[in-house]
Amino acid sequence: MRAVYVLILAACLAGTLPLEFVLRTRVYARWPRLLAALLPVLVVFSMWDLAAIRARWWHYDPHYLVGVTLPGRLPLEELLFFLVIPTCAVLTLEAVRARRPEWLIGDEA
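Request: output the structure for the sequence above.
Response:
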């Protein structure tokens, strides 16, 4: 089934999106901070995937992809993965912080 990868990513976002509003995590409201967390992940892992694709160590099953391929034969879904999954992780971390403010995570002032 085409677009399975995109549907999984959409489900991840849909599952964590309520954290922004219900627990007021303000992850999307503080987009520069989110972007600072996402950019290193996007750059490093995209380069990693491109190298693995080029070396023919890694490939993607086209049956699960929408068919949009970026330069270097990187599927659009893989690029989205590097944005969506870390965003969901940050939302989850901020939700835990909102519910358990006494738990220290190491970036406190």
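The first helix runs from residue 4 to 22.
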